[in-house]
Structure of Copper-sensing transcriptional repressor CsoR:
Amino acid sequence: MADPTHCQLALEPAVRDSARQRLASVRGHVEGIVRMLERDDVYCVDVLRQLKAVDGALAKVGDAVLRSHLHHHVTNAQARGDADEIVGELMEILKYR
Amino acid sequence: MADPTHCQLALEPAVRDSARQRLASVRGHVEGIVRMLERDDVYCVDVLRQLKAVDGALAKVGDAVLRSHLHHHVTNAQARGDADEIVGELMEILKYR
Amino acid sequence: MADPTHCQLALEPAVRDSARQRLASVRGHVEGIVRMLERDDVYCVDVLRQLKAVDGALAKVGDAVLRSHLHHHVTNAQARGDADEIVGELMEILKYR
Amino acid sequence: MADPTHCQLALEPAVRDSARQRLASVRGHVEGIVRMLERDDVYCVDVLRQLKAVDGALAKVGDAVLRSHLHHHVTNAQARGDADEIVGELMEILKYR
């Protein structure tokens, strides 16, 4: 999935570990909503609240990865010579945020 | 988790089944990102793209549940006599959407 | 602009007054950003912060109008007989929120 | 409003001109909604649709300013020596987007 021209731009190990742990917890949360949806008396708004909580947890992971990317790969892109590509792919992500 | 005063307002079975299947697929997607984060050369923007895809999938599930809730429980709330509560909890969900 | 089949569903006068006043203030805020953009030393992030403040002010107006619409026109839609249309147009608004 | 340490980081003239023109048009749009709200038969959903259109127009202005900021001030922040501050203020903007 990684773009070959960017293969040297790996996510910082500490951020990667933290993101993996948080996402493992998000996976458990989603698993819980799947089970919740097996009950035939589940209330719509309870499902919506759980989806919103998952959304918030994903947003926190995304913020940490974005912050690390800005620090380690974006603020030095002109020096590295790939600023156009870096900005283009970043805008693609941020546009629909 | 269901509010006792709303225990009769269960999510429509067809929407519930579809939501459960979609969320099982979201869980698999999150699982895939967890594995992706085990690779030490994972690129930040690839992670952000995957998180965004999960976010879009969750939003579709939420839209289907919301639409069903509006149809089956909100448009008849005055007749049922719980309009204030129904609107209050709905605004709480929609506020941060 | 109003849909003829909904012409009886007018926005509540008190909410309408409050929305008009808040939007007059938003217009002033936008006017201020236009003037800010006449300065050749304006800093990008200061513009982004102002745009975000306007966005927040618009969201508050939207929340008040939405809450009023839910209370006065959505929670009685089945009794009135236009639930399908009411839900359809509401989902259209909420989808991209 | 501009941060003194950033006073050299001015918004690109072409983007500034375009943003000013678009925002002048947004101001006219908001003015139109204010007038719309003077009518006592205005329909809630028509107001919500107009607010959403304004929101979309503001987002386009914000995207153009953000893209310019990334290109001209963020991708060279390490070389300039203010990367921490640049990333911090950017995350503050993007967090609630």
In short: Residues 1 and 7 of chain B are 10 Å apart (CA to CA). The mean pLDDT of chain B is 92. Chain B touches chain C at residues 63, 66-67, 70-71, 74-79, 83-84, 86-87, 90-91, 94-95, 97 (CB under 8 Å).
